[in-house]
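Troubleshooting entry. Yesterday's outputs looked truncated, so today I'm pasting the complete records for two proteins to confirm everything comes through intact. If either block looks cut off, that's the bug. Protein one:
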Amino acid sequence: MVAACYVQAQQDTLYEVGAAEVVAYREQVFSAGTHSWKPDTLLLKQYTPNTLAEVMGQTGMFVRTYSPGTLATPIMRGTYGVQTAIVWNGFNIQSPMNQLADMNLIPSFFVDALEVGYGSQSALYGSGAIGGTVSFGQTSAEKNGLHGKVMLGAGSFQNFQQGVKLSYKNKRYTGRVRYFNQTAQNTYTYTNPTKIGKPTDTMRNAQWWNNGQVIENYFAINKNTKAGLHLWHMQAYRGVGRTMIQNQSRAFQRDDVWRLMGDVKYSKLRTEAIVRFMWFDERIRYNDSAITPILVSDNRAVGLVVEGEYRYKINNRHDVSVGLNNSNSKSSAADYGSPSPVQYKGALFVSHRYRSWGNKLITSLTLRQEWVSLRNTQELPAVSLQSAQKLKILPFIPSIGAEWNVFGSWHWQAKASRLYRYPNFNDLYWNPGGNPNLNPENGYSIESRAGYKKRWGIVQANASAGGYYNDITDWIIWLQGAGGIWTPQNIQRVQSRGVETQAELSARLTAVSYVKVDARYSYTVSTNEKRKSQFDESYKKQLQYVPYHMAVCNIAGGYKRWYININGQYTGKQFVTSDNTAWLPAFYTLNFMASWGHKINALDVEVLLQARNLLNKEYTVVQWVPMPGRNYQLTVQLNF
């Protein structure tokens, strides 16, 4: 399936395999005013041996991770991972248990297309898309016949990767199978400032492995009907590395995730009708034998999402879309009680786009209404299953945006929307402490941006700058209550506001060479605007682990089959306490990447070298958890 936001919907006169223009259409057509970032194809190709979390460093996005391979979640516009949607081929894959999607469990080897959307997308994706979206997926683009790829990589800290891709395409069918495996010991050294004399320590129990498979099928049933079916399986084992203040760690986590999705699209003249589904089964097992009694946790969630959408092109100026979404999920965990919690969520959404002559002005309007029915295992006994069904009408979500080509090379865009996040299973049902009476987080978002784009012969430049403001009420926070039990409450009100800038300059020097420089900077203020009590020291303070400053710069160049990229990333200081009395210092990392390709008959050979943290800086992203120093990765890819 074509991943969200990447490929324009094909005309229905084309008789070619590829079902999921379905996803691209909605976000590209009905998201006027949204600022987004897409890596070029060549840059994305260089990250084939890495995970999606490592690719995100190119965007200037702050990714919170404890150490290589561990849980990695984005922090966008002053919000956390539970408030950023991770979207696979148009489906939000945040877990219903903790509302997180781990980007370190998404190999770039499985990603054909990627786009980051900044700001609220609640009207398009519903709960959880407050800070933005990270959309990725697979495309049906492939050469006719049988083709394949083999990837072998090796790097520092006994880091090894293997990948295999086989594909076949004819006029009516495209099939692709991918397999990826990665293992790493992560026994890197670091200076430990918490011990007398600041000795050199070694990271222990941070080993990890993950492997997965993706099976893709695309069918061209006839010139008007296309279909797709995909299966994605991912499993991982990850040790929880000891921190600077621990003598040992014996904790580990196992992940096992299955996802199956499919769709059918019918298009003719001005109409399109799409029906699609995603089924998932995810399991997380955690074990820590270093504490007494031994901590053992086994959590599982299964669910089915079904969606139908109808689109109609009224004329060259107006497009409309209407759709229904139904999501059912069930989770089992000893800490949820019995019977297992079940959630049924539905949504109705309507969108409209207007384009003036010459596309000088583009506007979009989306309206979304969601409702949820759930069984509350902590309020009602198991014998009252029927009466335990409760219907809640969730906040009405409108979104309106506009893009205007002001004059010449200047353009302007703006967007206003409502946003919300429904509590996850942990918030509602964790025992002890879960709060079934929580309200959804909700609020509004406004943003505006101006940009300039110009070409002078072989040189092209574009730059933009903008600002945003989010006001979120009923922010869910876990507080310690009676008897020392922690419980979530709708206490905080958070305001996040900031400035984002971007500039890019590129030049095509000859037919076989080019250079490109791009830089991005963001300034984020995200503060608590409501006291939890009269003694609340977090009032008016910056949220934990939200840096004020983020910057990234890339200098890239290519000559024939050679490619070089130098990447610098700056992260400002992060507060680690809610009263802002303790923080992690700012840090800067410099990374280098080079690749070379050579063709031998039908075999295309590519060699990729990555050098990370070239300056060997010592830094932490999470308090007391050191990140690795200078390290290297060498990868060879064979395409046939």
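Protein two, checking that the full record survives here as well:
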Amino acid sequence: MRNSTRHLSVLAAGLFIVIIVATSSAQNVLTRQNDIGRTGRQLNENILTTGNVNTATFGKVFTYAVTGQIYAQPLAVSQEFITACNQIPPPTHCNIIFPADVIYVATEDDWLYAFDATGAASSAFWSVNLAATAVSGGTFVNCQMQIYSGCNSGSALYPDIGVTGTPVIDTSSNTIYVASAVSDSNQAVSTWLHAIDLGNGSEKFGGPIKIVASYPGPQNPPAGQCQTGTGTGGTVNFTASRQLQRPGLLLLNVNGTNIVYIGFSMYDGATHSNGWVLGYAVNGSQQLAQVTGAVFNTAPFGTGGGIWEAGEGLAAETRNGNTYIYVPTADGTFDVTNTTGATVDYGDSLLKLTVNSTNSIGALSIASGSTAYFTPSDQSTRCGHDTDFGSGGVMLLPSDVTVGTHLNLMINAEKLGYLWVTDRDNLSGYNPTGDLMVQKANTKLTRTGNGQQGYWSSPAYYEWGTSPNITKEVFFTITFLDRSVAPGPLNQYNLTPTGPIPVDTNGNGSPNYSTSTLFCTPVPTPSISATSSNTNGILWAVENSNSANSGGSSPACNGSSTGAVLHAYDATKVNNLELYNSGTKLSANTPTKFLPPTVFKGRVYIGTYQTLSPTNGELDVFGICTSGPTGQCL
């Protein structure tokens, strides 16, 4: 539904008023990367074009300061009815209600903000401390003190841990669901799921609810990393101090019930923990509760198997009446093909989880046989060596992207620098003598002194043109762990009916176009904006600029950070002269890793931070210069 009409009855100054507002729901950004296929496409952007995104007419228009780093992608709702009260929850006498375009921002210090997306209001409509609503005296988690002593700026998160995975919005109930890590006054760590009213910031449905879970496991835990436990009848328990809520949340409507699915990896140092997927819904008593059977552990008899995805959301689809969730896992035990002992551990694999839509609605399971998972043939050499298959997110390719008899494809990239294309109807299992996926493309770059390179980000997808001449593209950014090595570009691959990734004569991935900008780690997760007719396609990317990467014959990434830079490229050919870059506008700000830009109604929103002690975050907003509160670019 592209447009809807919303009604609200308001009691104000003794008058009963009915407000009727036409909303543009198609422009809303309700989930990580815009859709549950995780394509990164905003296809209803009718203001920003390849003609007006340039240094003369486009730029930074306003900012909002926040407490904590912004790892979760900002989400947006058009014409939300906001309750203008300063108290959370609002007092019963609060009756000042009005429609507004709202951008929702969650931070690692456990704050959730609702800001005016236009910049017309100088402060938040409302903000709520999620830790305090979960636990009396609660606060965010200190990584070094409460997770592991070796936590530092090179860790997955540092220094504060609160909201990491991108929330998800359910407009049918006017709710934003947020998962947060919380510390109590005794330093005990817990994880909570909040159901927050979009209009006033109050908790709903009896929330928040503490996340607890258990799963059948071995009597004798695994003796070491990558090994399998023995015996049956044991239990594996979800332990909040070991489980990192990294991927974006997923909202699915399963046979009329809206269910929120939450994925977990493990914190650095928690090598014996596993990946989890848990489902929650509002029950018949209007209380938030865990869905019966909606618990899945990726390696319950083994170690590892975390769900990282560089923060990407869990990908899913409903097709032919069936609903599936696709989950890539990190280093861990793999024993599915063993002839004795446990056969339920899926480290370094891609899983197809079936969502029950009949008896136990929302319950999770994995089908038996090779069609429900894919594991690379070199898995035995990956586990324990930090070469995760699940380092990047999964993207479901649209149904018009096919290769021969393979009609439903998905793509992911991983730490060894390969792009994998698999058939969602037959993932092909594990074959130690050779992989049977649709395509494996080596995309490594040749560099002097080449260190490990791979993917710690997720792709974006765009198609344009008129039938039968439609061009279909995916965009990836590869990165190097060795910062003395030259950085890499953002690559554009025009998909083919035989690949779909184009390759050279040696079978190596061959991008059609590459940006002239070379990106240092953390490399950008790109996003796309275009009109509903797939015109004016713009590729957006945020660079972590580096003093050693200033051009010349020997660029590198071992200098100091020189701030965040927003780039915009013509999405039809990214090697053309870029449309825009923000230059030194954000020189005091560091970009948050893996975070894609959010495009909403003519503006681009990115999360950055200025200091880590204390953690002063910032939402930086770009748009047409006349669209800002001052009428000009900053």
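Both blocks look complete. Sanity check on protein two: The chain has a mean pLDDT of 90.
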